[in-house]
Write a structure and sequence with these properties.
The protein is mostly beta strands. 7% of the residues lie in helices and 65% in strands. It is built from two helices and 16 strands.
């Protein structure tokens, strides 16, 4: 029954895509843009009496945006990916500072326009996972550092599809509310086959490879210039599952403060907050700061 409901949601979204024929023979209604960023930081010590640990880290981020507008229709697709590694002196393992692959595609049909913004009927598809294996690190009694595999590509993988309303003030400020959203969580059986009967892996039960949820979601984006050449970008995603513990709202909030030095150089401070009751029953926090090389394409 859950998979039937999920299939119905897919049908609703595909129907929204095919409501009107898009004529893009000369590509006049397409906007394409991308941004490549390399963010790095480094610290080194030699006979430093105050103490310190040598470290080097680097993160690559690529954001690509495809947008189509015609006769009140808007189709926006964003690809967001990042990967970063950190090397600490004295540690035998490289450790990740970032690992993300996310694709968002939203189709909207405008039905109202005013001074406070435009309103559209909307359908969206979201996919999110990571590129490589993730580990939990610990030091054993012998003093050796060891790691235990915790995640990998498509484990977990999140697929969301929903219908609702889209409000847009401008390209830098919008909110999408989807009161009917299906979410499928997929995992590798490698992580679930050894669980105890009362244990779950990202909400997936022992021996299973997926979990279906039906709920509501809110996604929002807001970018503004805080001071001259200082830009703050906010991305927030909220999700509530109607089928189980709807009061446990999943949160994914990223705030990126970027100081533009010149055309190519920036200083970035990234803060990310995640709460996912299926993963860890506490707030997850990630902070990265460094000098970035940015290229638009």
């Amino acid at each position: 029954m859950r998979f039937i409901s999920f299939s119905l949601l897919i049908g609703l979204t595909l129907n929204s895509y095919s409501q009107e024929k898009i004529n893009d023979s000369i590509n006049t209604n397409w906007e394409k843009s991308g941004k490549f960023t390399f963010l790095g930081n480094q610290s080194s010590y030699s006979y430093w009496t105050a103490g310190g640990q040598t470290s080097v880290s680097g993160t690559i981020k690529i954001n690509y945006d495809l947008n189509y507008e015609n006769n009140g229709w808007n189709w926006d697709t964003k690809i967001i990916t990042a990967y970063g590694l950190n090397s600490n002196g004295g540690s035998k393992f490289l450790k990740k500072t970032d690992d993300k692959l996310e694709i968002n595609s939203l189709v909207g049909k405008k039905f109202s326009s005013s001074n406070i913004g435009d309103l559209s009927y909307s359908s969206f598809i979201n996919f999110k996972t990571q590129w490589t294996k993730g580990y939990r690190f610990r030091t054993v009694s012998s003093g050796e550092e060891e790691r235990i595999e915790r995640t990998r590509f498509l484990s977990p993988g999140y697929f969301q599809i929903g219908v609702g309303l889209y409000w847009e003030k401008n390209k830098n400020f919008w909110v999408n509310f989807a009161p009917i959203t299906g979410r499928l969580i997929v995992v590798n059986k490698f992580f679930t086959e050894k669980l105890n009967e009362n244990q779950e892996y990202f909400g997936v039960k022992k021996g299973s490879t997926s979990r279906f949820e039906l709920g509501s979601s809110i996604r929002s984006y807001y970018k503004f210039e805080f001071l001259e050449n200082v830009f703050i970008t906010n991305r927030i995603s909220l999700y509530s599952d109607y089928l189980e513990n709807p009061e446990n709202i999943d949160l994914d909030y990223t705030i990126n403060t970027s100081l533009k030095v010149n055309k190519y150089l920036t200083t970035d401070l990234i803060l990310q907050f995640i709460y996912d009751n299926n993963a860890v029953k506490r707030l997850q926090v990630r902070q990265v700061m460094g000098i970035g090389l940015s290229l638009n394409f």
